[in-house]
Each structure stands twice: as structure tokens, then as C-alpha cells.
Amino acid sequence: MPTGEQHPKCLPQLEAQPFCATPRVLQHVLGSSALDYTHVCFNATSNLQGKRICYYFSKTQCDWNSSREQCQRLGASLATVDTEEELEFVQRYQGPKDHWIGLHRAEGDKHWTWADGRTFTNWSVPGTGPCVYLSSMGISSTFCHDDKFWVCSRADSFVLWRNGTNPH
What we know:
Pfam family, one: Lectin_C
CATH topology: Mannose-Binding Protein A, Chain A
GO molecular function: carbohydrate binding
CATH superfamily: Mannose-Binding Protein A, subunit A
Keywords: Lectin
Distance between the termini: 42 Å
Largest sheet: 10 strands, mixed
Subcellular location: Cell membrane
Number of domains: 1
Protein name: C-type lectin domain-containing protein
CATH architecture: Roll
Helix content: 10-25%
Shape: globular
């Protein structure tokens, strides 16, 4: 697929829908195509400095780049998973399907980078591809053009702001 062309299964259907409403799992059916997504928020413990992260699990499959674009349309990024605690949390809600996350590397590069630009060095990533997905067994890498489900993440303060409450 040419760069910049929208993946046909990833057309935006997300206007005016909340990213995350509560710290429990919610199901939404969006638009006439009946795309549905699961929203869940992670209340971090003190070792994560009290941050609260919301995750958005797709029910459609896209390649890595289209998945990243879908997350950006939601005001988020493909999920970042910085700790084992976060990894376990996301795995609990993802179900048995593989989901793209925001970790990738340039061709020929040995260093992993998150979609938000941060370098990842927390643990090794098995596989031979440049894009990373989350499975029930952990993280692995494969080719970016493969279609997989996807998971986005962002700070919950956005939701508070959207509901009319300034988080600051």
C-alpha cells in the first residue's frame, strides 16, 4: 500500500467517542460498520508516580503504520509498555489476539524506539521484524505490513479535560 493511503479496514469511525470513561472495561459499537473497541484505564502504583494510563483495544486489524495513524486520530499513540506491571495489565485485557504496540526500529538499526520517540532498553525483544506486537506470551517483533489488532495509550488527564474538568 502506498505511503499515506488509508488502510481500508482502518477508516476513521471514531469522532465524538470517549477514549476512556471509567477504570473498568467498556464496550462501544461505533458507526454503521459496527466497529467496537474496548477501553480500560490503568491506575498505576506509586512506582509509576501515580500516573493513570488509558488503553484502547481495537476490534479491527491494520498494519503497524495504519494502526499508529488510528491511535493519533484518537489523540493517543500506539501503546507504550514501560514496566512489567503495565505489560501484565495490558495482557490481561487484550485477550488471545496479537496487538500492535508503539515499539519499532529503523531498518538495520539495533535500537528500539517508541512511537513517541523515546528509546526502549527495558528488556530484549525477540523476533526479526522492525515492528513490535503484544501476544499472550509477551512482546515480539515481526514485519510492519502484517495486519494485527492494535492498542493505543494515553494519559487519563485528557479524558478529565474532555469532560470539562481541568486536570491541573
